[in-house]
Amino acid sequence: MLLLAFDTATPAVTVALYDGAHVLAEVSSADARKHGEFLAPAIDKVLADAGVTAPDITAVAVGTGPGPYTGLRAGLVTARVLSSALGVPAYGVCTLDVIARDAVPGAGGRDFVVATDARRQELYWARYSAAGQRLTEPAVTAPAAVAGAGPVAGAGAILYPGLLGERIGPEYPAARTLALLASERLAAQLPMFPPEPLYLRRPDARGPGPPKRVTPS
Length: 217
What we know:
The chain has 5 helices and 9 strands. The longest helix is centred in the middle third of the chain and has 18 residues, at about 70-85. With about 220 residues, the chain is α/β, with parallel strands linked by helices. The strands form 2 sheets. Strands 3-2-1-4-5 form a 5-stranded mixed sheet, sandwiched between helices. It has a 4-stranded mixed sheet with strand order 8-7-6-9. The chain is about 30% helix and about 25% strand.
């Protein structure tokens, strides 16, 4: 296995290369305005650092959000292009699940919430068991709906510190963890998810509607 994993559903762009036992190389950067600019060079760097080339990749795993349309789309389109060009499978992993996996130690045996920025003064979030298993489907709501739900991982706890519960890490997903989750499902022969986006709402940018009818005065 040589699994290329990346996520662009949050302000962070994170990329890792995983061989089924070890992370061979990884790189991350946080800038919500430069997902498209950073992702391709980050992939090139990870491959170069690991001493491999793109044809060596055997599978791609990508974060499916939920997340803002523009950033999320950059990762998903890249995953599909690589899958088609290299003739390898592409798998999707919920971004909230990735954050949850790394949040388990900080939760200290308690159920917890992962909440990320959905903009428009809203959060993407889901509730997790103490072991990091998702208990609810991802949702997008006002922060008040998450208040009192327990410890909170993800950027939501930073954005609304006076409203949400105890903050636990991490703030953003890590591609190394995304790769681990995907490889675990593959090893267990569990159903794999496609690289399809979890937008949960319509994108901010919309095409123009039909022309308005002008009524003669």
